[in-house]
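Q: I'm building a small set of examples for a reading group on sequence design. Run inverse folding on the following structure and report the sequence directly after it, with nothing in between.
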């Protein structure tokens, strides 16, 4: 690629690029489930700007281009929720998804008291399920949404340091 990918907090100026990347990245998911009305494909620019303002939204940049993104937030019980992990199709399978996941986990634990992480994906999204399993996530629930889709919830406890 010639340049290294950097990961940083998203700004409001990134909203349009994130939305376009999300739209591109979720095409394969929509096709997999024959559902083009999924939230990532219908999200508005205003809604994206609100998320950037209210949640931890990270972007991966290759030069000036946003080539990856992920979001996270912590609920009242101290569970860090991670969502919308997207890597541009042309640079998938080079570890960027793992790096984004590690970065958002690090950001959430640095700024909040987090006891565990939770995320979800569709049951047919095998590459996602493999990535999450490699990163220590374990399946905790499966909820059937329709004949075509079941949502798999995965969780991972936060590693605690043994050093004092």
């Amino acid at each position: 690629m010639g340049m290294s990918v950097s990961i940083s907090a998203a700004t409001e100026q990134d909203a349009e690029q994130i939305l376009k990347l999300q739209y591109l990245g979720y095409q394969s998911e929509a096709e997999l489930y024959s559902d083009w009305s999924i939230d990532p494909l219908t999200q508005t620019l205003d809604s994206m700007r609100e998320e950037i303002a209210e949640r931890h939204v990270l972007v991966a940049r290759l030069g000036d281009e946003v080539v990856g993104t992920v979001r996270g937030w912590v609920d009242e019980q101290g569970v860090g929720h991670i969502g919308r992990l997207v890597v541009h199709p042309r640079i998938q399978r080079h570890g960027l998804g793992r790096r984004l996941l590690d970065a958002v986990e690090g950001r959430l634990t640095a700024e909040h008291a987090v006891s565990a992480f939770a995320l979800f994906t569709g049951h047919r999204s095998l590459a996602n399920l493999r990535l999450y399993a490699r990163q220590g996530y374990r399946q905790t629930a499966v909820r059937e949404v329709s004949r075509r889709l079941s949502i798999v919830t995965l969780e991972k406890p936060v590693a605690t340091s043994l050093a004092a």
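The chain is about 35% helix and 30% strand.
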